[in-house]
Design brief:
mainly alpha; about 250 residues; globular
Length: about 250
């Protein structure tokens, strides 16, 4: 519904001389919101088109930090659209626009880039990138970005054979995320930890992690798009452990 309103505003924009004053934001910002809505409802191609249009509205030299934030979003949306190769160019452009010294925004871009590498199973590159993001996040006190980087670093490390180290990192990320992370981040940490435990031949422990997080998620006023994945993970674990009646239920 929000997306429809934003896109209707964009249709009306050329016909309203003082549109920016009436909207309380410029056209690039309306496009950014519209792109976020499109991405949230699963229209990845539309989100990419809208964020590209937002970038055309900006003078990158005059507003480098704002442009960098849009390029980071573009990288995320390209990855969701199945264009992860193209996403790296967007992340790299975001980093080019940011000052070289550590900052919360720079750490965020580095962490997002590392996560895409991890999702592509490029564990060596992901580990290096996540370690860099973790260092920068800690340097500037960006705790949420730190926990996200720790999550990615743990999974990538386990993918490179360092299972116990990876599991320990993910346990830390999950435990600390209860206080500061979004619901999506908390569930993602639980999903990744359970997956690593399962890979390590410890499905019962993995099931405990999944069920504890699923129970906690039910009580939250804000649900996460990861919640259904968590339940599917529970079904998968139960099925492979031979607990078919529980899996069916």
């Amino acid at each position: 519904e929000a997306g429809r309103h934003y896109e209707r505003a964009l249709e009306l924009w050329p016909r309203v001389p003082d549109a920016e004053e009436r909207a309380g934001m410029d056209r690039a910002e309306v496009l950014r919101h519209a792109a976020a809505c499109a991405n949230a409802r699963g229209e990845e191609t539309r989100s990419v088109a809208l964020i590209r249009e937002a970038l055309k509205e900006l003078d990158e030299a005059a507003e480098p930090l704002r442009a960098a934030a849009l390029y980071e979003r573009l990288g995320n949306f390209l990855r969701a659209a199945g264009l992860s190769d193209e996403s790296f160019a967007a992340f790299d452009r975001a980093l080019e626009l940011l000052p070289p010294e550590p900052s919360a925004q720079r750490a965020h871009v580095l962490e997002t880039r590392a996560r895409v590498l991890m999702l592509r199973d490029e564990y060596g590159a992901a580990r290096d990138a996540a370690a860099g993001a973790l260092e920068e996040a800690r340097a500037v006190g960006a705790e949420l970005t730190e926990l996200r980087a720790l999550n990615t670093l743990g999974f990538a490390s386990a993918g490179l054979g360092e299972e116990e180290q990876g599991i320990a990192m993910l346990r830390e990320a999950l435990e600390r995320s209860q206080a500061v992370a979004t619901p999506g981040d908390r569930v993602r940490a639980a999903i990744n930890l359970a997956e690593l435990l399962d890979f390590a031949g410890r499905p019962a422990e993995a099931l405990d992690v999944v069920r504890a997080e699923a129970e906690a998620a039910v009580g939250r006023p804000e649900r996460s798009s990861y919640d259904v994945f968590l339940r599917l993970q529970e079904v998968n674990l139960l099925s492979r452990m031979g607990r078919l009646e529980e899996a069916r239920d």
